[in-house]
Specification:
- The structure holds two protein chains of two kinds.
- Chain A is about 40% helix and about 15% strand.
- By secondary structure, chain A is an alpha/beta fold.
- Chain A has one domain: 2-enoyl-CoA Hydratase, Chain A, domain 1 (Alpha-Beta Complex).
- In chain A, the strands form two sheets. In chain A, strands 3-4-5-6-7-8-9 form a seven-stranded mixed β-sheet, with helices on both faces. Chain A has a two-stranded antiparallel sheet with strand order 1-2.
- In chain A, a hairpin with a 2-residue loop joins β4 and β5.
- In chain A, α4 packs parallel to α5.
- Chain A is globular, with a radius of gyration of 24 Å.
- By secondary structure, chain B is α/β, with parallel strands linked by helices.
- Chain B has a single domain, classed as 2-enoyl-CoA Hydratase, Chain A, domain 1 (Alpha-Beta Complex).
- In chain B, about 45% of the residues lie in helices and about 20% in strands.
- Chain B has twelve helices and eight strands.
- In chain B, strands 1, 2, 3, 4, 5, 6, 7 and 8 form an eight-stranded mixed β-sheet that branches.
- The longest helix of chain B is centred in the C-terminal third of the chain and has 19 residues.
- Chain B is globular, with a radius of gyration of 17 Å.
- At the A-B interface, α4, α5, α6 and α7 of A face α5, α6, α7, α8 and α12 of B.
Chain lengths: ~290, ~260
């Protein structure tokens, strides 16, 4: 008797659950979170599908792109990720720094703020480093410096062209003076790389500041800027508080930097792969396709 | 002594500045000016001189001894034209086979609109990169404040030495506290200085610098002038004996290790 009663109850609860689920759907009309996107520049709301390569279809604003999205954008097909590491030094024993790194590794699935790789762009083999500002704002600590240095040394050994996509808040403050030393280490590797007459293309994306803007970012044989990228040594706030003046509206934009003579060309994301392909071909002396 | 007291000592206006060291250590100094791109920066100076019988090129930051002179030299905060002038002089030193000595004494590069527009980042980056190409002995001396990229622009050498009461760091303790502790009134600058490990002794222990030069009695600077003069003479002799390839290799490895 009790058994059949329970059976009946189970059956009823199935219907109850079903009713509840239907009711929920009817009342809330939930829209999947990522169906629409609001552009931080023009504030227009558009469907996410209309954002090609994270570019606003309304105003053309280039939203940040993570390292893997960038590599998918530029490479012909498959590529190989290089120099991943488990290292996470904390030379100053900065409180909470180790935990923060662990948390970010979990969250972003990155090992640090840069991904180094090798692959083909327009059929030409090259080494590409892409910084990713989801990881500590892309700041440069020992691991970032070491990975980029290894990538430069590797490109030199293999006699391959090198492309670095920058985005960085600057030096990794939590690593103190060791962070500063990375600027020297990376530029030392670049000096050797350039002495071998190999091509280095620096690709500035939003935002690129501080230590990176005073080490490898400006040193490209060719420096490309992405539209809307902010690029400078000191941040707007620091400068404004130092000089106590209003800054020009376009201060430190890619256009501003191009007019000032520090960027060769501004390339829209839709032409990123194509432009890099042409530049690489011209340095190899072979025209493909 | 707390680390922030060291910072205050390093910033003391009474400390000798680059001209004091030049006048008391070197002979026949001839100052050379201009970046050849349309400017000259008063915060960064350079020139040629004799160290005993050895011709050398000297570049470095200039701080004043009082407010008025500091206003003229922008408190030792270099602008792009200063770094480009130094770059030109260092390249010339390389051409004429003269050792390069750089004196570092700056809170950091100047953060301003013109500084950005003229490419302060690029100017410093080029100084750093080119330092790996010079086939002449190169020695850096941090004499007061070694602040940030502005200091590192002159800090890539075969040997980096520091005076006993100098500091060298990624940022000022005040800036560090503002960024990492969200400190707005400077109340945590002491704590920041402790954490940053920015004294000569800290940096020697961490392998960032190669030697600490004692300053002796701070009322008479002759002691420190002698110490620096002797050290430079000796080290330039040692470094000059290395062939160019070894010199460049060692300099690369010195910074590769970080």
């Amino acid at each position: 008797m009790e058994k059949s009663f329970k059976k009946q109850k189970d059956k009823l609860s199935i219907f109850k659950n079903l009713r509840q689920r239907n009711r929920k759907n009817k009342n809330t009309r939930e829209i999947p979170e990522d169906l629409f996107k609001k552009c931080p520049h023009c504030n227009e709301i558009q469907t996410s599908a209309s954002y090609k390569d994270n570019v606003c279809p309304n105003c053309g604003f280039h939203l940040p792109m993570n390292a893997y999205e960038r590599m998918d954008l530029i490479y012909d097909g498959r590529y190989k990720v290089l120099f991943t590491t488990k290292e996470a030094p904390n030379p100053l024993d900065f409180p909470g720094y180790g935990e923060k790194i662990d948390e970010l590794k979990q969250k972003t699935k990155l090992d640090e703020a840069v991904v180094c790789s090798i692959g083909h762009i327009g059929k030409i083999k090259c080494v590409v480093c892409v910084m990713d500002n989801r990881f500590m704002m892309g700041s440069m600590g020992s691991v970032v410096g070491e990975k980029i240095t290894k990538a430069i040394e590797f490109a030199l050994k293999k006699k391959l062209p090198l492309i670095i996509f920058t985005t960085s808040g600057g030096a990794r403050m939590q690593e103190g003076i060791f962070s500063l030393m990375q600027m020297a280490k990376v530029n030392g590797a670049l000096a050797r790389f350039k002495a071998a007459n190999l091509l280095y293309v620096s690709y500035i994306t939003h935002p690129t500041y501080g230590g990176v803007s005073a080490s490898f970012a400006p040193m490209g044989d060719i420096v490309i800027g992405e539209p809307f990228a902010m690029y400078g040594f000191a941040g707007r706030r620091v400068i404004a508080s130092t000089i106590k003046q209003k800054l020009p509206d376009d201060f430190q934009t890619t256009k501003y930097n191009m007019d000032a003579g520090f960027i060769d060309l501004i390339v829209e994301r839709s032409k990123c792969k194509q432009t890099l392909g042409k530049i690489l071909a011209m340095h190899q002396g072979v025209r493909h396709g | 002594m707390g680390r922030f007291e060291k910072v205050e000592k390093a910033r003391d206006l009474k400390r000798p500045n680059i001209y004091d060291y030049i006048n008391n250590i070197f002979d026949d100094f001839i100052e050379l000016k201009g970046d050849r791109c349309g400017g000259d920066d008063s915060a960064i100076i350079g020139g040629i001189a004799f160290l005993n019988n050895q011709p050398v090129t000297i570049v470095g930051h200039l701080k004043g001894h009082d407010l008025n002179s500091n206003l003229k030299v922008n408190f030792g905060m270099g602008s792009p034209s200063g770094y480009r002038k130094a770059l030109r002089l260092m390249q010339q030193a390389n051409k004429f086979n003269r050792p390069i000595i750089s004196f570092i004494d700056t809170p950091g590069a100047y953060p301003g609109v013109e500084s950005e527009q003229k490419g302060i980042g690029e100017a410093i980056a080029k100084c750093i990169e080119d330092s790996f190409n010079y086939t002449v002995p190169k020695i850096s001396i941090i004499i007061g404040e070694g602040g940030s990229g502005g200091a590192l622009g002159f800090g890539v050498s075969d040997q980096v030495v520091m005076l006993e009461n100098a500091v060298y760091s990624i940022l000022s303790p005040e800036g560090f506290a503002a960024i990492l502790f969200k400190d707005k009134d400077g109340s945590r600058k002491e704590e920041a200085a402790e954490l940053m490990k920015l004294t000569a002794l800290d940096l020697f222990e961490q392998g960032i610098i190669d030697k600490i030069i004692p300053e002796g009695d701070l009322n008479s600077n002759n002691f420190v002038y002698d110490k620096i003069g002797n050290h430079l003479t000796q080290e330039i002799q040692t470094l000059s004996r290395l062939d160019k390839k070894t010199l460049l290799h060692n300099r690369y490895e010195r910074f590769r290790k970080y």
